[in-house]
Amino acid sequence: MDLTTRIDQALEAALSRSEAADGPPRLAAATRHAVFPAGARVRPRLCLAVALACGDDEPALSDAAATAIELLHCASLVHDDLPCFDNSPLRRGVPTLHIAYGERLAVLAGDALIVLAFQGLGDAPTRQPDRLPRLLGLIGKGVGQPHGIVAGQAWECEPQVSLRQYQRAKTGALFAAATMAGAAAAGGQPAQWRALGEWLGEAYQVADDIRDVAADPLLLGKPVGRDQALGRPSVAAEQGLLGAIAYFHQLVANAAAAVPDCGGAQRLRALVRAESERLVPAALCAELARAAA
Amino acid sequence: MDLTTRIDQALEAALSRSEAADGPPRLAAATRHAVFPAGARVRPRLCLAVALACGDDEPALSDAAATAIELLHCASLVHDDLPCFDNSPLRRGVPTLHIAYGERLAVLAGDALIVLAFQGLGDAPTRQPDRLPRLLGLIGKGVGQPHGIVAGQAWECEPQVSLRQYQRAKTGALFAAATMAGAAAAGGQPAQWRALGEWLGEAYQVADDIRDVAADPLLLGKPVGRDQALGRPSVAAEQGLLGAIAYFHQLVANAAAAVPDCGGAQRLRALVRAESERLVPAALCAELARAAA
To answer: Cβ–Cβ contacts within 10 Å for residue A219, how many?
Structure first.
């Protein structure tokens, strides 16, 4: 089974467990809207790829970890899109949750997804419950205060912020949690996998900055030019578009080099390369270089 | 150590672990604002009282369970107070979080509290990690979809809702999670403790309805008459004030009767009685009966 199929099945199972005939139907529909149609699922695929590289001896626990990472990512998108933040009308090519279901259900669906993420770690049948404390710690750290994605979003509410600190928390932290939780779920050494997640997370954030300036809104599935409109810190604004692209490629190279030697190393390096091309296609780089010349 | 001191120390420790000099300071302050000054702390005290009745052999785990219950309660209050829901200006006698720190930090502080609640279960030093799956399940069920407090709040977004279903989810679910998690943390039998939590939760919700109609806003620390203004289902609206008071006393009696025979039974029944008097004082009942006569 490929990783995308595996994660989508695990997400579907988690959502189904959270639904019941006597629960509020609009909340259930809103929660589904936040998780499907699929985004790139890059974080949970990364999580599973690392789990496989570490032996994946408790696949239900790896699935739960990858599911938690993706549900928490979806929750953060729903809350980031709210009128009080980005006020985004479009996400993944469809109306954002607050547009489709109203602001109240957008707040609640985000909350429900956070709860479901952690609840699912307890639902996983495993002979290794002693791995749970570490998983809870790693995933909580990637999401919460003081250095996770919630903290990253909160830097937008501060009068002073360093670009690096902001991006590490807003994006890098959950990527690092994805690789480290994959290792922890499979009984591996999380610390060995931190650098891969951190480099890839930074690359992803820089790619987002580049695409916000350069990409076609139809391809991106969401409005472009938001960072500038919102006065948000951005590598593209700081270093110019070509500088940002060069920086992106350096980060991707660092990520590939950070994959520890192991059975799954080749698969992981291939995943890193494929993500690089998906995020900032070589054809786009060539076109931008021509335009700048 | 009394239960209130114990829970406040555990909450303080959890908040401190989520703070760092290089985290976003306004988010840290907002999160604290949601947890202190203290509310009645009835849910975590109940959780600890049940843990003690079950032997409390892993006090760090009981503390983490009680802390999680209270942090999740605080998170739900913060999000319920948001402009898109109750738009409440006042809570526990001080400005609500979105008034004090803005709507964005209110959304994020709620999110951070939910994460911290679950992360704390992993942080608790324990020799019994095999209790974690059950704890995650019980607490997740009390908070999430389809029957927890998030689902309860979501019933306000549905065109059709039964009063009982709404109240069970909005209030009863977290009380039941509090008693059951207290038992699970101490290695007891959660199922034996469900009824106590459910009866008390329903009593608490009915008391809230009564106080919303009858209490002094200065004593309550929040505006009154909100249920009616918001067209929210309410026992007081359905059965009249005296009917609601009689129903409340029946629920309290059911709760006291549901305490299983055990070492801590007396302490638990005393807690139930004290809560009853705190929520709906005998003097208030007498005054209302006189006014109705």
So the answer is: 11
